[in-house]
Request: fold
Amino acid sequence: MPVSVTWLPQTALVFMLIFARVGTMIMLMPGFGAAGIPARIRLSFALVLTLVMFPLVSAGFPAFPTTSWMALAMLGHELAVGLILGGTARLVLSAAQVAGAAIAYQSGLAFAQSADPSQPGVQGAMIGNFIALLGVTLIFATDLHHLVLAAIDNSYDLFPPTGDLMFGDAAEAALDVVAGSFKVGVQMAAPFIVFGLVFYLGLGILARLMPQIQVFFIAMPANIGLGLILLALLLTVMMGWYLAHVETSLSLLVGG
Reply:
């Protein structure tokens, strides 16, 4: 194959464009984009993954641009694709936060706050943080992170380097993911919502029958204890539901 004088600039530009998309998606994707993973490690992994994907997708990039503005436009296109797909996939994890918040409120543990490991600088309910961290752990334990890697490769079929961004379709997909995550989060917390309704209804009746006694204050330990017992009994089923939701959502990005 003849090598022209533009081969090295063309190769460097294509590598930078691939790294822009892959790096952005890695920083946001479920599992790989967890805040607990140092940014240097994530960027190093993105660099290695770019080296792997370069021979697979480099043929789909256009010829070397004639102006710097065209090169910047191509870079912006790749960054936008990475933000769209990575951000959409990241919204899948919000189901754990929805479920954790609902469980914490119904169990009387909403005031037990701690630093959220998935969102630096943000505090959340301890039960929600536990479920979110457990979900990320199970993603790697069950090899669902392979779907994340497959989604990165399939992104060049969904959004080719020379294609349009399709912001309308991306917004609709993000809306569907948010709605699906909220629905799954409520379904995961449904037993606790029912438990909270029944428990607080009973306490309300007791408070009306015995207004001189602080019923809610006395029953708070029982509320917390029963909530923790219910969490221990249902945690396996809840996380199985959560993993099925993650797999289904990521399969859409893979094209399955």
